[in-house]
Amino acid sequence: MSTAEKWIYQALENRTKALSIALGFRDRSTLEHSDRVQTLASELGQAVGLSECQLSALKISAKFHDIGKIGIPDSILMKPTKLDADDWEVMQRHPAIGEQILCSIELDGAEQAAHIIRHHHEHFDGGGYPDRIAGEDIPIGARIISIVDSYDAMAFTRPYHQGRRHTDIIDLINRESGSKHDPYLLRYFYRMIETSINRIA
User: Fold this and answer.
1) Contact 58/10 with Cβ under 8 angstroms?
2) DSSP letters spanning 39-62
3) Of 9, 131, 126, whose CA–CA distance to 61 is shortest?
4) Which PANTHER family match (predicted)?
5) What are 181's strand-pairing partners?
6) Which residue in 6, 17, 59, 69 is the catalytic one?
7) Is 69 a catalytic residue?
8) pLDDT tens digits, one per residue of 135-180
9) In Å, how far are 51, 153, 174 from 29, measured between CA atoms?
10) Domains and CATH numbers, the chain
11) Which of 94, 115, 141, 177 could bridge to 68 as Cys pair (CB 3.0-4.6 Å)?
């Protein structure tokens, strides 16, 4: 990666940092989750051999993958029980909101990160959202975030669910191979997570 490209991605990260801090004041657990997802996504991206430019875009999109939750009402974002159908419909808007936020930053690299953010809840079989795209039509960065986001979300206790053990999470993720998650990337994830600082007990 050239010095100019490194500067662009650093400037992009700096410009979005304020939004991350704002979301953290509103929902501390989301900020902490995003930090862990960024670390895991970076580790998995390196394991699968992404280029420096791809890794930079991945790190930014992983850090801010949930930034669109700024546009979700507190009554839904902080709800202590499972979301109902109407709540879930609203929650599913956050990837598109996040994309709009990143696209509003007029820097090279923002569009690539925004594209990843938009698609991080797509499923490998086409059953996700917002666009129901499938397979390799989903950006590889989004497929990586989908895996590590799922792992971290299941690892920690939230008002609506108890945190699970590492072995239980791996079992659940393995069941979603080919449906929610990319089987090829999962092979790398299983090896990577065993030595990650964010592996839970």
Assistant:
1) no
2) HHHHHHHHHTT--HHHHHHHHHHH
3) 9
4) CYCLIC DI-GMP PHOSPHODIESTERASE TM_0186-RELATED (PTHR45228), LIPOPROTEIN (PTHR45228:SF4)
5) 177
6) 69
7) yes
8) 999 999 999 999 999 999 999 988 778 899 999 999 999 999 999 9
9) 30, 10, 26
10) 3-193 (1.10.3210.10)
11) 94
